[in-house]
Design brief:
Layout lengths: L1 H14 L5 E7 L5 E7 L12 H10 L10 H8 L7 H6 L4 E3 L16 H4 L5 E3 L1 H4 L7 H13 L3 H17 L5
Parallel strand pairs: 3-4
Antiparallel strand pairs: 1-2
Length: 177
């Protein structure tokens, strides 16, 4: 994957000013926080583009369907999930798994309520039930339900099924924004 990673890094650098890698502070196993790596898909000054209505929608849903902060290259990287390839380094560092619950920030833990303690018993995954079940179109309640289902029903067969389904979902581009 090294040639692809280098090509994407170059394209991100040429697309808009700012760092190539975005570091998202997330909560991992044992409630330990770490930086999850992604290719940057948004403008560095993107916060200035958000209206109060968009800020409220972002706070409620966690994502915006037509996010004005995303660069043209960023839209392609997100639709194909190429922006998440740097998370392979997080997997190699033992902070993430290939398959697991969705990685979340400390602020997002509030959506998990009493289930938050279950969530931090496992490493977050690059893919999971949430991705193969709707990706960004899912609300927090559904994401929580799918993550808890994964944690309670973990098996190597479930992981293999999720990896198999991830390929189809990523190739279709459904639910990615």
């Amino acid at each position: 994957l090294a040639p692809l990673l280098l090509l994407v890094a170059l394209l991100v650098r040429l697309d808009s000013p700012g760092p190539v890698i975005y570091r998202r502070r997330v909560v991992g196993a044992g409630n330990r926080q770490f930086d999850a790596y992604k290719f940057r898909t948004m403008r560095v000054d993107g916060g200035a583009l958000l209206t109060p209505e968009l800020r409220a929608e972002l706070q409620e849903a966690g994502k915006l369907v037509d996010d004005p902060r995303i660069t043209p290259l960023g839209r392609l990287l997100r639709r194909t999930s190429i922006d998440e390839l740097p998370q392979l380094f997080n997997v190699l560092l033992g902070q993430m798994s290939l398959v697991g619950p969705r990685m979340i920030t400390a602020d997002e833990l509030r959506h998990f309520g009493r289930w938050r303690h279950n969530l931090v018993t496992v490493r977050p995954g690059m893919t999971g039930l949430w991705q193969v079940s709707g990706r960004s179109t899912l609300g927090y309640d559904e994401r929580v339900r799918l993550d808890m289902h994964y944690i309670r029903n973990y098996s190597i067969w479930l992981d293999l099924y999720i990896i198999y389904r991830t390929v189809a979902v990523v190739l279709s581009g459904r639910g990615a924004f």
